[in-house]
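JOB MANIFEST
job_type = single_chain_structure
chain_count = 1
residues = 171
[input]
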Amino acid sequence: MNQDGFFDLIVGAPGDDNNGSASGSARVYSLVPQGVFHVGTGTPGCAGPQLLGTNGDPFVGNAAFEIVGNHAPSSSLGLLLAADALNPVGWDPFGLGATFYIDFFSMSFLYGWDYPSDAHGSSALVVPIPNDANIVGLAVVFQSLSVWSTPCGLGPFGISTSMAAVAFLQP
């Protein structure tokens, strides 16, 4: 509905009279968890734009917090990055032919994990959030990177990147 690539919920109220006799109304709700927002589109791969999301709210102490993605090369090993600095317009600071939303030159931390995909190109990785009140309010930028073995118009290294998923850590 809002064209962000994620599911939305539409709830109707037949007979709601706010706009005249028996006009009805509808409300649209995003199913993106509270405290998470998305930036950019990344560099689409051979299967289209790679979406990146979460399985729930990013609250301190959430040991089951998971980063989920799609449209990666099937049955391949990707890379999931996390940092504390966002470049909202996207850039290619290393000349790889791929768009990054992590500001590699102003971050104070960078983490990387293996991010394998299944036969359908979907990925999921549990990234537990520590139970530490000192990190409440921290914005963590997540982005995935994939390398494609088949040519499909990607840059010189066959790299695609996801949109950025930014998680604001909540109490």
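[summary]
The mean pLDDT is 89.
The longest strand covers residues 139-147.
exit_status = 0
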